[in-house]
């Protein structure tokens, strides 16, 4: 036991000290950048290859609610108008803020005063995978490891919705999970919040047109925070939550 304690002591502090300043490696595909330059007349290559229909024109824009951060648009762009940065700023309180163009460069997360007053010091979350591929779920699991250690900010995942303040939704919401999702949300005490994580949760992603999907839950319950990505990086999730709760980073 003493050998194990000695090893742990020698390892020192392993968590990321400044999660706001931290960035993934350069190869990470994060926030897209749209340059202010004219595309050739009649060029719709990026829109044609986009698997989720996330790209619109006049002006050129990428809807991060739908975007899965694949490189296809960059691959076919003939003049470098579209590129990807390694920025993890992919969260927003308004879905419209996730539509990126040459004029709107970065999504915006506004402090939710109600949530800050109730949950700034302690925010308990219940995760529901509503037909997800397990990509977003793996990144959410990583939030509790020694690197990201989201618990130090008072944010934890709990097993029961009775103990939760917020529901974290992943997946496109399959018909088989639609009732379970609504039942879990209604089992949570008020006040409660819905947080959508990943392009599938935000828009249905690649499965938006599938007949196996039932997204009627979102017709009545609006997420307080939308976190884009396929899947989002843990730093995206942490920074989005901390900004929503008004933490001074």
UniProtKB/TrEMBL annotation:
Q: Which Pfam families match?
A: Oxidored_q6 (PF01058)
What is its cofactor?
Answer: [4Fe-4S] cluster
- Does Transport appear among the keywords? no
What is the official name of this protein in its record? NADH:ubiquinone oxidoreductase
Q: What is the lineage of its organism?
A: Bacteria, Pseudomonadati, Nitrospirota, Nitrospiria, Nitrospirales
Question: What residues does the 4Fe-4S ferredoxin-type domain cover?
Answer: 30-60, 62-87
Family under the similarity heading: Belongs to the complex I 20 kDa subunit family.
Q: Does the keyword Metal-binding apply?
A: yes
Q: Which Gene3D superfamilies match?
A: 3.30.70.20, 3.40.50.12280
Q: Which UniProt keywords apply?
A: 4Fe-4S, Iron, Iron-sulfur, Metal-binding
Q: Which domain of life is it from?
A: Bacteria
Q: Which organism is it from?
A: Candidatus Magnetominusculus xianensis
């Amino acid at each position: 036991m003493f050998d194990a304690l000695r090893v742990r002591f020698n390892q020192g502090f392993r968590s990321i000290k400044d999660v706001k300043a931290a960035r993934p490696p350069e190869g990470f595909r994060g926030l897209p950048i749209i340059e202010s330059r004219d595309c050739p007349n009649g060029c719709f290559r990026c829109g044609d290859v986009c698997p989720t229909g996330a790209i619109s024109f006049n002006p050129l824009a990428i809807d991060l609610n739908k975007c899965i951060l694949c490189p296809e648009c960059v691959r076919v762009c003939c003049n470098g108008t579209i590129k990807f940065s390694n920025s993890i700023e992919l969260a927003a309180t308004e879905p419209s803020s996730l539509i990126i163009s040459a004029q709107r460069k970065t999504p915006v997360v506004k402090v939710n005063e109600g949530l800050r007053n109730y949950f700034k010091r302690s925010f308990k979350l219940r995760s529901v995978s509503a037909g997800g591929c397990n990509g977003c779920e793996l990144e959410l699991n990583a939030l509790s490891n020694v690197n990201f250690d989201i618990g130090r900010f008072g944010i934890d995942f709990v097993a029961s919705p009775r103990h939760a303040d917020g529901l974290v939704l992943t997946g496109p919401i399959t018909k088989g999970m639609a009732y379970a999702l609504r039942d879990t949300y209604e089992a949570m005490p008020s006040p409660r919040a819905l947080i959508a994580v990943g392009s599938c949760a935000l828009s249905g992603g690649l499965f938006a047109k599938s007949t196996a999907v039932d997204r009627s839950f979102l017709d009545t319950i609006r997420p307080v925070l939308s976190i884009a990505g396929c899947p989002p990086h843990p730093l995206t999730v942490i920074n989005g939550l901390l900004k929503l709760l008004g933490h001074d980073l």
